[in-house]
């Protein structure tokens, strides 16, 4: 799928090229580019574990990541990182290739924070590359799950020049439960969140894209039970994986 390759920059070099193309028209792109240029290429992680939490909104990522950070005395990071978050609204209204370049850039900028933090403590991350990829794939594909690129397509591969996490946990919640949680929160919905709610096929494409990611793959965690139970499950998986 050609448009998909174009929508998802496969490397930091491709990203910088795309941001340069629109920097004259979008001042924020120049600012993101400046931050990206400061990041060393091929980040190396420290000795501490790097654990990513993925999932749709209202699957409990914020609650779980905070609790895991406290339990492991870790450092919590988010994508896109705060240093570029203020420009999110500017990019959300741009055409797909530019919007995706912004989110992809966030991952590379975040990677340099992960590299530094993982020399000091376990690193817990609320969304990373898999989110950028899953939402891009789901947006750029129409129709049902069967219409997604086949399972072993390279769109599901982690970029070679991006720092890899040790463990990726995908939180999933029953669709009705997720909608109730969103309503209880009463927050204003992002465009994508409104789409997830109104478009069952879109939601299914996002979740299936997460499941097809490889190298590293996502381990699924049912986040429907109570906060305490979900945390217990997550900590067991972490302990098992790292033999902590």
From TrEMBL:
Location of the Thymidylate kinase-like domain: 53-232
Assigned keywords, A-Z: ATP-binding, Coiled coil, Kinase, Mitochondrion, Nucleotide biosynthesis, Nucleotide-binding, Pyrimidine biosynthesis, Transferase, Transit peptide
Molecular function terms, GO-annotated: ATP binding; dTMP kinase activity; nucleoside diphosphate kinase activity; nucleoside monophosphate kinase activity
E.C. designation(s): 2.7.4.14, 2.7.4.9
Pfam families named among the record's database cross-references: Thymidylate_kin (PF02223)
GO annotations of cellular component type: mitochondrion
Family affiliation: Belongs to the thymidylate kinase family.
Name of protein: UMP-CMP kinase 2, mitochondrial
Organism: Piprites chloris
């Amino acid at each position: 799928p050609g448009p998909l390759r174009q929508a998802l920059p496969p490397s930091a070099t491709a990203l910088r090229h795309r941001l340069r193309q629109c920097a004259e028209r979008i001042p924020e792109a120049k600012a993101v580019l400046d931050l990206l240029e400061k990041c060393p290429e091929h980040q190396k992680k420290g000795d501490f574990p790097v654990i990513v939490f993925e999932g749709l909104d209202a699957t409990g990522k914020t609650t779980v990541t905070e609790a895991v950070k406290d339990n492991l005395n870790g450092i919590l990071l988010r994508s896109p990182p705060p240093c570029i978050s203020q420009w999110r609204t500017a990019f959300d209204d741009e055409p797909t290739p530019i919007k995706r370049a912004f989110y992809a850039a966030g991952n590379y900028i975040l990677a340099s924070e992960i590299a530094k933090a993982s020399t000091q403590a376990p690193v817990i991350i609320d969304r990373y590359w898999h989110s950028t990829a899953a939402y891009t794939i789901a947006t750029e594909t129409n129709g049902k799950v069967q219409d997604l690129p086949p399972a072993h397509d390279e769109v599901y591969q982690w970029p070679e020049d991006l720092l890899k996490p040790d463990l990726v946990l995908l939180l999933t919640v029953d669709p009705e439960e997720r909608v109730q949680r969103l309503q209880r929160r009463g927050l204003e919905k992002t465009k994508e969140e409104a789409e997830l709610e109104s478009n069952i096929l879109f939601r299914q494409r996002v979740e299936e894209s997460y499941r097809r990611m490889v190298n590293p793959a996502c381990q699924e965690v049912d986040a429907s039970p109570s906060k305490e139970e979900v945390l217990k499950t997550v900590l067991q998986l972490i302990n098992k994986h790292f033999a902590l």
